[in-house]
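In response to reviewer comment 3 from the previous cycle, which asked for concrete evidence that the modeling workflow produces usable outputs, we include below a single protein chain processed end to end. The sequence was submitted unchanged, and the resulting structure tokens are shown without manual editing.
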Amino acid sequence: MGPGRGLWITGLVLIPLGVLLTAATWLLGDSVFGGHSVGSDGMRPTYEQGDTVFTKKIDGSEVHRGDAVFSYLPGRYSDTDLVFQRVIGIGGDRVSCDGKQVLVNGEPLREPYVAGGDPVGDGTTYDVKVPEGRLFMLGDNRVTSRDSRHFLADGQSGTIPADAVRERALDGPGVAIAMVLLLVGGFLLTLIGLGCGLAGYLVKRRAPGTPPTPATAARLWS
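The workflow returned the following structure tokens.
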């Protein structure tokens, strides 16, 4: 097998691999992962206003205490924007605040993420039982966050439906970096495959032909 044919075959292998890798990464990123810019200071200092947060798309059954999540809550907030807050209590939990600390099921909640080390903020006290299928939400910046504490009299103790959750924040940009590297890798494989295919075609065209027979040479010289 000549060098031209070898390059051509290499191109035929790399091009579909590159296209497949690029397409699969793009589809995975679009269907499973996402990203948002933080629009308020309600989650400071963990997430500053303007930060880009990389997320995993989830439903209510995948929510856990402590998750920082984006929820869609038309009627309570904007009808178009997602709300970014932290899950403090899930269905069946008792969430309370005595004006000094937040407790979940009677146990003080360890919250190293709250702004200024202040888990109370405006000093609001409450004691609620989270209904099944709902979530009690607080922002990390308890002084400014407009969260479940501000809707305690809504008939649901300020909680939100678990199925309002759309995405969970991921820790760090690792997933996003991996996705970008896969996209770049697929694109490079496609380019290399195209280059190999083109090189093989050119080598084949420039390869010396079959030497002419004596009869053919005589006709050429006559």
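Residues 174-206 form the longest helix (33 residues). We consider this sufficient to address the reviewer's concern, and the full set will be provided in the supplementary archive.
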